[in-house]
């Protein structure tokens, strides 16, 4: 989420996790109109993006990243209604969608929206992607987790140690959001990357 992230190491999702998620998706019925949405949720640094990219390729699905929708380091809770209203609701009506993208460099909304043409399959990845009300549109909800120390280590390797205060502030928001929503307990699949 920082302005200029370090190049991420080439990490691949566990093929067994991708297989399990793809099998759930193959058996699921759409809950977003006729769009099959797979939400890949969990705390930062757990490996959601890696799994979502692999799953998107497997399902031939568009991948939307919640990182584009958080309005800054204090915007976690605000992103859930944004993705619901700007992406999921239009897709559920059979329409193309678009959303405002947060510019992490300028700390404001980007001037051009990101287009999301209607697709039959969508992987929605990021913290809060399966939190209600967005989670109600997900046919499959995947929770990705790892020990907190490992997640922070991954985050600092990607973003740099100067972002530790933001990560700690963000982690407190994650804890509050997930606790209030009961997100992990509603997951169809729990993946551990630790």
Provide a descriptive summary of the structure in words:
This protein is α/β, with parallel strands linked by helices and 194 residues long. It has one domain: Rossmann fold (3-Layer(aba) Sandwich). It is 37% helix and 18% strand. The protein has five helices and nine strands. The strands form three sheets. It has a five-stranded parallel beta sheet, covered by helices on one side. A hairpin with a 4-residue loop joins β4 and β5. α1 packs across α2. The protein starts with 14 loop residues before the first helix and ends with a strand. The N terminus is likely disordered.
Topology:
Blueprint: H1 15-27, E1 36-41, H2 48-59, E2 62-65, H3 76-92, E3 97-99, E4 102-103, E5 108-109, E6 114-116, E7 121-125, E8 140-145, H4 148-159, H5 164-181, E9 189-192
Parallel strand pairs: 1-7, 1-8, 2-7, 8-9
Antiparallel strand pairs: 3-6, 4-5
Helix pairs in contact: 1-2
Fraction of residues in H or I helices: 25-40%
Briefly note the CATH topology name: Rossmann fold
Highest-level CATH class: Alpha Beta
Element pattern in H and E: HEHEHEEEEEEHHE
End-to-end C-alpha gap: 22 Å
> What's the assembly state of these chains?
single chain
CATH homologous superfamily title = P-loop containing nucleotide triphosphate hydrolases
Q: Quickly give the structural class.
A: alpha/beta
Largest sheet: 5 strands, parallel
Q: Which sequence of strands runs across the widest sheet? A: 2-7-1-8-9
Beta-strand proportion: 15-25%
Envelope shape: globular
Q: What's the pLDDT, averaged over the residues? A: 93
* Overall structural domain count: 1
Number of helical segments with 4 or more residues: 5
């Amino acid at each position: 989420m920082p302005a200029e992230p370090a190049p991420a190491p080439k990490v691949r999702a566990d093929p067994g996790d991708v297989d399990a998620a793809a099998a759930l998706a193959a058996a699921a019925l759409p809950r977003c109109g006729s769009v099959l949405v797979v939400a890949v949720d969990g705390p930062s640094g757990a490996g959601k993006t890696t799994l979502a990219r692999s799953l998107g390729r497997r399902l031939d699905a568009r991948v939307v990243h919640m990182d584009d929708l958080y309005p800054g380091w204090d915007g976690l809770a605000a992103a859930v209604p944004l993705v619901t209203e700007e992406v999921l609701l239009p897709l559920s009506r059979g329409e193309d969608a678009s959303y405002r993208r947060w510019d992490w460099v300028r700390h404001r909304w980007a001037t051009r929206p990101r287009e999301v043409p209607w697709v039959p399959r969508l992987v929605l990845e990021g913290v809060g992607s399966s939190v209600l009300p967005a989670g109600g549109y997900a046919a499959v909800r995947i929770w990705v987790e790892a020990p907190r120390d490992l997640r922070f280590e991954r985050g600092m390797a990607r973003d740099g140690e100067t972002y530790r205060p933001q990560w700690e502030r963000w982690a407190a928001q994650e804890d509050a959001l997930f606790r209030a929503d009961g997100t992990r307990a509603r997951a169809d699949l729990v993946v551990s990357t630790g």
